[in-house]
Design a protein that fits this description.
By secondary structure, the protein is α+β, with helices and mostly antiparallel strands. It has a single domain (18-98), classed as Glutaredoxin. Helix content is 46%, strand content 22%. The chain is built from 4 helices and 4 strands. Strands 2-1-3-4 form a 4-stranded mixed beta sheet, sandwiched between helices. Helix 2 (27-43) links the parallel strand 1 and strand 2. It is globular and about 30 Å long. The N and C termini lie far apart (30 Å).
């Protein structure tokens, strides 16, 4: 029984967490959130997780990533895009981590 539960949990593992670091009132941040959601929807992979991070509320985490300004996008806790990337670049970075 325990093995079956472990196998079930393994099958539901998140492979890539896409974190969009934002600040309230930031218009570019809205575009970053929309971009990340769009790319995740296009990839249609249940191993992807989306997370929005308000840098004011989670300042220690944002600073730990090396964030200098918002918006930014981190993948699996690594600041990959300290700026707003193109959809193509974001898609490529996600796919590299899914391999």
């Amino acid at each position: 029984m325990i093995k079956a539960i472990d196998e079930k949990c393994t099958n539901m593992t998140i492979a890539v967490t896409v974190e969009v670091l934002t600040a309230s009132g930031c218009s570019r941040c809205q575009r970053a959130k929309a971009l990340a959601k769009e790319v995740i929807a296009e990839l249609d992979d249940n191993r992807l997780e989306y997370r929005e991070i308000n840098v004011v509320e989670e300042i220690d985490y944002a600073v730990g990533l090396g964030l200098l300004s918002a918006p930014a996008i981190a993948l699996n806790g690594e600041l990959v895009f300290p700026f707003l990337p193109s959809a193509l670049k974001l898609r490529k970075a996600i796919l590299e981590r899914l391999e």
